[in-house]
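Table 4 source record.
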Amino acid sequence: MDIIVSKTKEELGEKSAFKGAQLINKAIAEKGEANIIVATGASQFEMLNELIKQNIDWTKVTGFHLDEYIGITDKHPASFRKYLKERFVEKVSLRAFHYVSGEGDANQECYRLGEIIKKHPIDVAFVGIGENGHLAFNDPPADFETTVPYIVVNLDDDCRKQQMGEGWFATIGDVPKQAISMSIKQIMKSKAIICSVPDSRKANAVRNTIENEISQIFPASILKKHPACWLFLDNDSAGLSNIALGG
């Protein structure tokens, strides 16, 4: 895992988007198309803002949604479908984008998406790390073994508090208790992974990811096993880890 520390989250966004664009363009050059995974949440604001500015032929790119709450519509302020439509999909001209819907039969939706993604090997996964160390919505202890591409997961209290703390929900009781999430093994199948993690509230999760042994208790620690993973931090998120800060 390569670790890149920037002074600010804006600089982090520029660097992670640039690297991601390089990898997307490499895939397009090699096979005429690229398949990507796109994450959401406050940690991805700067990266996505820069990614849409990159010189990429988006008509050759197919995108996949990482996770979504069960039981909310795409009009809800916290909907990740709404987030991606407004911040990414409507800003570029993708070949296709496959959203996760949590409104109907969740198991059927997992199956539907799983069948699609099996036909689209992922070239670049854009992900983040949660305050509790989760990767996508795989809260600790995460399932490192399932080979199913999308799964129904229970959201732990720390995860739900983070969603409220970021302002997506008014109270903890409003935060759904379940979600559909891409599985750990499916994320790890990606040819390359760009992980963007700004802000001091993520510093402990970053330290656990970098300095602890790979463990289901620290889900994002699995990224250390990936052969082509770049972890982009700012000085705030890197502040508790034994790594050099951005100059």
